[in-house]
Amino acid sequence: MRLTLASDHRGFELLEVVRSQLLDLGHEVDIQGPDQGQPCDYPDQAALVCAHLQSGAAERGVLICGTGIGMCITANKFRGVRAALALDELSAQLSRSHNDANVLCLSGDLVGHALARRIVDTWMRTDFEGGRHARRVEKISELDAASTTSKA
Question: Active site includes 98?
Answer without folding.
Answer: yes
